[in-house]
UniProtKB/TrEMBL annotation:
SUPFAM superfamilies: Terpenoid synthases. Keywords: Magnesium, Metal-binding, Transferase. This is Family 2 encapsulin nanocompartment cargo protein polyprenyl transferase. Residues 13-29 have a biased composition (Low complexity). Residues 1-12 have a biased composition (Polar residues). Belongs to the FPP/GGPP synthase family.
Length: 382
């Protein structure tokens, strides 16, 4: 696993320095330690095992749900998940890391053991279906042309079919919960539906912010938008795992808060990678957010820093990108403190996430799977 791009610090402003059960439930195995021998979250390779186990448990439910769709929408969905090529022939593509279903299963295991985890597979699949509904729609709205190292669904099948496939995935997700005989399914369905509304609110705010000038966007409102777009579903995933484990209401809310804070840390690092990441690892063109003049978190932190570089960046962002070298824009964001601020904020959000998790699951060993996943999503290399 690569080194973290975050560093713990107390500074926070821009410019600061910086479905069979698997052999083990998706939580830290008894006595597990970090790579350095100390207590705490497992290292990167162990987190990858947790994700692989989650994918193995959830994939059959996902495939069954997608295969029940009408042919046209099924074709788009199967392509989007990486199971088929555009011509309908089988593919062994990348269906994503399964972070959200892994959080559902890890939370259920932490509070209810293997039996609760096994019972939460439908809920985990529902969360993954909702996540992919948002991806299909976001790609259309953002006009992103690449996802998971290949053309996005809308570029292959058109806007209409991609949107309708996303709509169908959302409906199937809620149907999975509605048909689930588990006692927690009704509460889970209501919570997931409320989360979808929040996701839509976050996306609407995001698109509205993009229509405003570079000097008209505040950092606080962008953080609120990012929590709704990214943190809400990670929080919901953790909360659903708690519901399926029969956890107390206070513990479910603490799990939701843990997921939201970890999700915001995830978004901060994702935005950093969107500017400084390696396309061979990210599957997206380098600097795509800057070319689109997107007001990502590092960019807004830079724009609001009050530095000379902020004024330079604002001037660059005031002009539509028409090709050419993005390096001056990248350097302006960095000199204005956007990169350092995002890394510091990601570290602080993770610290808050750990506090919330300890409220719901005081035993670090029991919380190991969730800790590992939270560490994993913020330990990605640029």
């Amino acid at each position: 696993m690569t080194e973290s791009v975050t560093e713990t610090t107390t500074q926070s402003g821009p410019g600061a320095t910086a479905p069979a059960l698997p052999a083990q439930p998706l939580a830290t195995p008894s006595g597990a330690t970090r790579a350095d021998g100390g207590p705490g979250p497992l290292d990167g390779p162990e987190a990858a095992v947790i994700l692989e186990q989650a994918r193995a448990m959830v994939d059959p439910e996902l495939r069954s749900a997608v295969d029940a769709l009408p042919r046209a929408m099924r074709r788009v969905a199967r392509y989007h998940f990486g199971w088929e090529h555009a011509d309908g022939t089988p593919a062994a593509g990348n269906a994503g890391k399964a972070i959200r279903p892994a959080l559902v299963l890890a939370a259920a295991a932490a509070l209810g053991g293997p039996r609760a985890q096994a019972g939460a597979v439908r809920a985990a699949a529902a969360v993954e279906l909702v996540h992919n509904f948002t991806l299909l729609h976001d790609d259309v709205m953002d006009r992103d042309t690449t996802r998971r190292h290949r053309p996005t669904a809308w570029t292959v099948f058109g806007d209409t079919d991609a949107i309708l496939a996303g709509d169908a995935l959302q409906a199937v997700a809620l149907r999975l919960l509605a048909e689930d005989p588990h006692p927690a399914s009704a509460a889970a369905a209501a919570r997931l539906a409320a989360c979808v509304v929040e996701l839509c609110e976050g996306q609407q705010a995001d698109t509205a912010l993009e229509r405003r000038g570079p000097s008209e966007v505040g950092l606080d409102e962008v953080l609120v938008m990012a929590e709704a777009k990214t943190g809400a579903l990670l929080g919901c995933a953790c909360a659903l795992g708690g519901l399926y484990a029969g956890a107390a209401a206070a513990d479910v809310e603490a799990l939701d808060a843990f997921g939201r804070e970890a999700g915001l840390a995830f978004q901060l690092i994702d935005d950093v990678i969107g500017i400084w990441g390696d396309p061979s690892r990210t599957g997206k063109p380098a600097g795509a957010d800057l070319a689109a003049r997107k007001k990502s978190l590092p960019v807004v932190a830079a724009l609001t820093s009050g530095t000379p570089a902020a004024a330079e960046l604002a001037a660059l962002y005031a002009v539509p990108y028409e090709g050419g070298d993005l390096e001056p824009t990248v350097l302006a964001v960095e000199r204005a403190g956007g990169r350092d601020w995002a890394q510091v904020q990601a570290s602080e959000r993770m610290a808050r996430a750990m506090q919330e998790l300890s409220r719901a699951i005081p035993d670090p060993e029991a919380a190991g799977g969730l800790l590992s996943l939270a560490e994993f999503v913020t330990r990605r290399s640029t």
